[in-house]
Amino acid sequence: MSISDEGIPEDPKLPWLAAALGPAEIEATLLPIVARVLGWTGPTRLIEARLTRHKPGRRSVFYYQLEMGESIGVYGKMRARGADLDTQNLLEELRGAGLARASGGRASVPRPLGCLPQWNMTLQEEAPGKLLSLALDESEAQQSVAQVAEALFRLHSSGVNPHRVHGVSDELEILQTRLDNAAERASGWRDRITAIGQSCSSIAGQLPPVRALGIHRDFYPDQVIIEGEDTTLLDLDLFALGDPALDVGNFTAHLTEMALRNHGHPQHFKALENAFEERYGSLAPGVPRRSMRIYRLLTLARHIHLSMTLPGRSETTASILDVCEA
Length: 326
Known about the structure:
The chain is an alpha+beta fold and 326 residues long. The chain folds into 2 domains: 2-125; 130-325, Alpha-Beta Complex (Aminoglycoside 3'-phosphotransferase, Chain: A, domain 2). The chain is built from 9 helices and 12 strands. The protein is globular and about 60 Å long. The mean pLDDT is 95.
């Protein structure tokens, strides 16, 4: 058994961090719930437990490797404001709408595996495969992003409609808050950042009315796992009714940012951006290509702030400003 408990952070908002890595606690609480959901009645064993992500005062993610006849991976998502039961129910609904491997679909969402309310934690089965972000420089990358565009279209056309709505005004409000903060952090670029914000607002006003669909809202390569022709879409906690072009633009903007950060040039993944747009557009001809490009700009502008706040990204800020202005 491997238990990674070195440097467990102290977090008054998440007082269950240590318990969620305790072998006795895991075997007494987590294993029985997962076994029941999977219908497993044989012996169970904890192989590994580790903390993979921690946002102080907000949430943490754990990985558990369990033995239940075969080895399975489970992710536990802990939130300070309570277990995310809404997303668990959403995953069930999406899987019932065809986004499940068990139904033979090539596009799927993770299988929910229950809840540990005493730890504010929900459980999901690990999806097989690798993150799309790790496959962008492979020879089959264009085929992979086209496959992901098909999966995104399947999500948008699932017929699952959440109560939450996210319109362009909401997107602009978030963007303006981020740009205001960025201008405070980098006063030397204040005029440029202000001008970009004004241009984004003006250009977003050109977006045509759309039929709102269920959209991911935070769609980028780290939210996708691929295995052969199968695609798994992750982290749907922001799922809302909105413009499907937002997800397309968000995805391509992240490709541009990753090109800048990892390869030093915004055009490095341009062929992948085009392949993604073209495949999605062929499936959803009613979604204007111009709308995709506008949302790409809004996401790139938001990356000005992200480059200032995420570790290891500060060197890209000037380049992102240049790309937005262009």
